[in-house]
TrEMBL record:
EC primary class: lyase
Keywords per UniProt: Lyase, Metal-binding, Zinc
Family classification: Belongs to the beta-class carbonic anhydrase family.
Named cofactor requirement(s): Zn(2+)
Catalytic function, reaction form: hydrogencarbonate + H(+) = CO2 + H2O
Pfam families to which the protein is assigned, alphabetical: Pro_CA
Protein name: Carbonic anhydrase
Alphabetical list of SMART domains matching this protein: Pro_CA (SM00947)
Originating organism: Pelomonas dachongensis
Amino acid sequence: MTTTHHTLRDLLDNNKRWAAETEAREPGFFSRLLKQQTPQYLWIGCADSRVPANELVDLLPGELFVHRNVANVVVHSDLNALSVMQFAVDHLKVRHIIVVGHSNCGGVRAALYDSRVGLVENWIRHVQDVRRMHQDWLDGVPELQRVDALCELNVVEQARNACHTTVVQDAWSRGQAVVVHGWVYGLHNGLLEDLALTAGSADDVEPAYRRALANVKQRYSSAG
C-alpha cells in the first residue's frame, strides 16, 4: 500500500468537496443534523487511524457517538471516558455501548512486550494489568497469535469495566435499556467480530464475562 501525503490545504479542499457531495446527494442533510443528535450507539474504540468507526459500520454522522483512546481502555479514573459515557447514556439515551478493539494493536503489543514507548506507557499499564491477569494462559498461546489474543482479552476486560461504571450501573438500576458489547475488528480482513460479551443488566455481567473469556481462550487454544 502506498502512502499519500496530504497538505493541510488538501484536507480543507477534501472537506469542501465532501460537504458539497453530501448536500447534493441528500439535500438538507446538514440542517437536519443541526437540529438533533439521536445516536443509538456509543462506540468506545482505539485511536488507531486504521479503525474509522462510522465507516466500519456504514453509519452517517449523527448515528454513532464515539470515544477513542489508545488500546480502547475503560478505567474508572478516566473522567474523559466517563463523561462521554454519562452524556451518551443520560442525555442522548444510547441503547448500546460497544467496546471495540482491533487486531495487531500497537498499544496492546507494547503492553505485551513491556516496550518503552514514552508517556503512553503509563496509560497502557491498564493493558499490562490484563496481561498479568491472564499471563499463564497467554504464555501457552503461539507467539505469532499472542498480540491478537491479548487484544481480545483486553476488549473483554474493558467491556466488563464499562458494565461496572457508575454510569451503566445507575442506568440499569433505574430500568434504562442499555446493552454493553465487546467486539474486535480485523485489520487483515475489515470484519468486525462479536466476542459474545453482551450484558443488558447487572445480573448479566459476570455470566457474559465468563462466556466471552472462555470463547476467546477456546478459539486460541484450538488455533494453536
